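The material for today's practical consists of a large collection of protein records. There is nothing in a record beyond a sequence line and a structure line. Backbone structure tokens are a discrete shorthand for how the chain folds in space. Nothing more is needed to start thinking about how sequence determines fold. As an example, a complete record with its sequence and its structure tokens follows.
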Amino acid sequence: MKKFSASRKLLNLKQV
């Protein structure tokens, strides 16, 4: 689940 958080953060940065 921790990996998911990191992946989501990366996606958020890429989306912005």
Observations:
- Residues 8 and 14 are 10 Å apart (CA to CA).
- Helices lie at 2-15.
- The mean pLDDT is 86.
- The chain has one helix and no strands.
